[in-house]
Amino acid sequence: MTSLPISLTVNGHRHELEVDPRVTLLDLLRERLDLTGTKKGCDRGQCGACTVLVDGKRINSCLALALSHDGAEVLTIEGVAHGEELHPVQAAFISHDGFQCGFCTPGQIMSTLGLIAEGQAGNDPERIREGLSGNICRCAAYGGIVEAVLEAQEQLAKANRRTAA
Amino acid sequence: MRDFSYLRATSADAARQAAALPGAMLLAGGTTLIDLAKCGVAEPDTLVDITHLEGLDRIEIDERGAIIGALARMGHVADHADIKSRFPAISEALWQAASAQIRNMATIGGNLMQRTRCPYFRDPSNFAACNKREPGSGCSAIGGVTRGHAVLGTSEACIALYPGDLAAALVAFDAVVHLGDRRIPVDDFFLLPGTTPDKEHAIEPGEMITAIEIPASAAARRSTYLKVRDRQSYEFAAASAAVGLELESDGRTIRDLRVALGGVATKPWRARAVEEALKGKVLEPETVRAASLLAVEGAVDHGANHYKIELAPRVVARAILKLGEAA
Questions:
Q1: What fold does the segment set A4-79 form as a domain?
Q2: What strands, in cross-sheet order, belong to the sheet with B24-27?
């Protein structure tokens, strides 16, 4: 069918695109914008590998029609670091071995950013596991992931205290 | 995914008109519809996107109850302070449903319209027979793998389970679906499969869910949603119960009780027999457990789903007793 125009801001860059109605946000990111950090796992909203932030909230980009998100601000894994400096969540995933094969990791990290922004989990490992249950890790690196989230939250809280002081 | 055209509705009236045309479907959060389009179950010619309509995501709460706009996201409603305090079962049902990502996308109206997770329904390329998909084609589930199928409200045509959590809580507290000006109790909104399992909702072409209204009650204020499942999170219910309790001033006699089941029936299942058996009785474990057995009156299993008939009354009893303890 006829392609339609949309405007999207991805990692701070604005894009004007013509999109087939069937194209998901995931496919648009990967195929049109060459942002292949966001992964296609199940493509059915079950695994969380495609998690990105849209207007600050974590969603499954595989179930989102691109056209439906006209005007949205999207953050993908490529936009998380500041230049060469890793985001504290990325650094914590490395220092705690929060992955093995790495395929689910971009989704885990984006989901963690969403979780921390929601402010619901605190430092309770059980609530972190609950809050990240939409992200499956088939290598089962869950132990390291929870430790990484705990440390990243602590680092971010410290940084916030420094900024506030 | 089959080709379709996309239309962004600019008003609720325009959306209703566009969606009334043959082959047209409303698109909100998309978490069911896009999934089903990928499976080849949903084959829309046109998607009418209503997510940009303004004002339909409002949550209004006063002493009479709550009115939740159809486009309010599941996560937003789950986290709403007044929903948590006045309708804890609603908030808990939403928190225990899906994943955080899906709760951020899926809307309350769309949640009511979600389809069954019956694996035969969702796999047209391998299972041609499905009365829900193709009326008259038969049922692949009957005689198949039935661990996740319904034991209540089934028919010879269909045993597909209604998978939702929220609707069980809505049915327990007599919520009402707003279809524009038309109002319909949630219990009547969901239809039994009977001989027409393809018709799941009492909604006609050209109608659109605009809001859900939940009347305030003492039982809703003292309520909970207990969900038992194969894994602890991000899983559909093996059996669940939405329960609300109001005690007399003596603190032990049951004045009002609401019980609805999820995960066991073809629609969200109000268990009025349990409610009637316990109203006026003193809340005691023996009495509650005996009455909870009435929740599965008339249940029929298809082999592997037999466990639900034993599990559901236990879940109901546990939920009632938990509320009784929380004075």
A1: Ubiquitin-like (UB roll) (3.10.20)
A2: B5-8, B46-49, B24-27
B101 contacts A1? CB cut-off 8 A: no
The H or E element that residue B74 is part of is helix B74-78
Q: Tell me the pLDDT of chain B (327 aa) as tens digits.
A: 889 999 999 999 999 999 999 999 999 999 999 999 999 999 999 999 999 999 999 999 999 999 999 999 999 999 999 999 999 999 999 999 999 999 999 999 999 999 999 999 999 999 999 999 999 999 999 999 999 999 999 999 999 999 999 999 999 999 999 999 999 999 999 999 999 999 999 999 999 999 999 999 999 999 999 999 999 999 999 999 999 999 999 999 999 999 999 999 999 999 999 999 999 999 999 999 999 999 999 999 999 999 999 999 999 999 999 999 965
Distance from CA of B227 to the nearest CA of A (A): 14
User: Which sign does the torsion angle of CA B2, B8, B13, B14 carry?
Assistant: negative
> Chain A residue closest to B6 (CA)?
A21
Where do the domains of chain A lie?
Answer: 4-79, 88-164
CB contacts of A64 in chain B (<8 Å) are: 30, 34, 105
CA pair distance B146, A138, nearest whole angstrom: 26
Domains of chain B: 5-49 (3.30.43), 220-325 (3.30.390.50)
Which pairing describes strands A73-75 and A51-54: parallel, antiparallel, or unpaired? antiparallel
How many angstroms separate the CA atoms of B159 and B162, rounded?
A: 9
* ipTM associated with this complex: 0.97
**Mutation for B interface: A20, A24, A59, most B CBs within 10 A:** A59
The fold of A88-164 is DNA polymerase; domain 1 (1.10.150)
Subunit contact B105:A130, Cβ cutoff 8 A? no
